[in-house]
Amino acid sequence: MTLDGIHHITAITGDAPRNVDFYARVLGLRLVKKTVNQDDPTVYHLFYADEHGSPGADLTFFEYPGIERGRPGAGMVHRIVWRLASAEALGFWEERLRREGVSAAREGDGLRFDDPEGLGLELRVVETGDAPLIAGHPEIPAGLAVQGFDGVRAYSADPERSRSFLERTLGFGSAGPDRYDIRGERRGSFYAYDRTATWGRSGAGTVHHVAWASPMDDHPAWRERVVQGGGRPTPIIDRFYFRSIYFREPSGVLFEIATLGPGFATDEPLEHLGEALSLPPKFEHMRAQLERVLTPLPLTRGPVRATSKAQA
Ligand code: ZN
C-alpha cells in the first residue's frame, strides 16, 4: 500500500476575490470548484487545480472574510512548492511576477515569493517522470505553466520525532536531512522540515492541512494503519468529491489522507468546472439564500475565454 504523493493542500484566505485573481489569473491555475465550507455554508471553499481537477495539483482555500493574517510556526506547513519544466519557464515566471508587482527571489533552480496574504510559495525546475498537471490560460504557454505540486515544507521544533511515524506508518522514504519522498503508482511528492521552536498562529495566508492521496480501495486500511502507528485519525468523512481522514503527525502538522476519486466532475461537467456555485446535496435547499450572502467573485473562465477568443 502506497500513497500517491500530495492529493491537495488547504489554506486560509481572508480575501476571496483577491485570492481568485492571484491563483487563477496570475498563477494560471483553474478554479475547478466553487463550493461552501461544509461546517459554515455562508463562506466559500475554493479549489484550484490543473485543467482536469487532478489530485496532485489541487490547492484549496477556506474563506474567512476579513480574518487577520496568520504566521506559520512549528507544526505548520509554511511553503508550497510547484514544479516547472525548464529554466525558460523559470525566466517566464520571474518576468510575469515582476510585471504583477510580486516580489520574487531566485534561489538556485527555484523562485520564491508570497501570495497576497503572505503564504510562502515556490516554483522550482524539477526533472520528473510524473505527468505534468497544467491548466490552460490565454497568457501562459502550456510548456511554461505550473505543473502540479512538487512538495511542501513544514516547520518543526524537532523533526526527528516524526521520523518513525512517517517512515514506518505512512511509507515515506528518507531523502536527505529532514526530507522525505512519498511515491505511489502515479505520482510522488516531497515533504521537508525547516526547524523552528516558535509556534505559529493560524490565519489568512497560512496552510490548514496537507492531504496525501490514497487509491479508493486502500482508504479504510490506511485508517487502520494510522491507528496502529499511534495516530488518532478521525472517522472516514465523506467530502463528496473524495473521502477523508485527518490526524496530526508527531511534529503537529495536520495531515489528511484523501481518496483519488470520485473527483470534481461528479456534480458538474468537466468543461464547466468551477463556473457555478456547487453545493453538496444537504445545502442545495439553501442555494438562493447562500448566493445572496456569499462574496461576489471575479469570473475566471467561460466569459474570460470567450472574450479573448473574440479579440483574437
Ligand atoms: Zn483537505
TrEMBL record:
Cross-referenced Pfam families: Glyoxalase
Q: Domain VOC: where?
A: 5-139, 148-260
A GO molecular function annotation here is: dioxygenase activity
> Which key words tag this protein in UniProt?
Dioxygenase, Oxidoreductase
Gene3D superfamilies for this protein = 2,3-Dihydroxybiphenyl 1,2-Dioxygenase, domain 1
Extract the InterPro entries matched here. Answer: Extradiol_RC_dioxygenase, Glyas_Bleomycin-R_OHBP_Dase, Glyas_Fos-R_dOase_dom, VOC_core
User: PANTHER family given for it?
Assistant: RING-CLEAVING DIOXYGENASE MHQA-RELATED, RING-CLEAVING DIOXYGENASE MHQE-RELATED
Under what name is this protein listed? Ring-cleaving dioxygenase
Organism for this UniProt entry: Candidatus Segetimicrobium genomatis
